[in-house]
Amino acid sequence: xxxxxxxxxxxxxxxxxxxxxxxxxxxxxxxxxxxxxxxxxxxxxxxxxxxxxxxxxxxxxxxxxxxxxxxxxxxxxxxxxxxxxxxxxxxxxxxxx
Length: 97
Known about the structure:
A 4-stranded antiparallel β-sheet has the order 3-2-5-6, with no helix packed on it. It has a 3-stranded mixed β-sheet with strand order 4-1-7. The chain is of the alpha+beta class. The protein is elongated and about 50 Å long. The termini are far apart. It has one domain (3-71): Carboxypeptidase-like, regulatory domain (Immunoglobulin-like), CATH 2.60.40.1120. The mean pLDDT is 88. The protein is 26% helix and 38% strand. It has helices at 11-16, 78-96; strands at 3-9, 18-21, 24-25, 30-32, 37-44, 51-57, 61-66.
């Protein structure tokens, strides 16, 4: 049974990253596969570029991922950021009903 481990850099991206393999979220930084196969790995973290790659896993391996920080084009004020967060929270609450 092959094992795929993930090593993410930098540490601030690794702390908030969401890892998906074939569209399913991975809990932790390790995934045991039932058999060797080709998988699509996708990693997202707020403030960083999305990482996406298709790889063949035929044995135990470690995938080293370097996340690249996004460059902000404009500076947002605290009021705008809080307002956008409040709107997002409200939309989430409405969808839950």
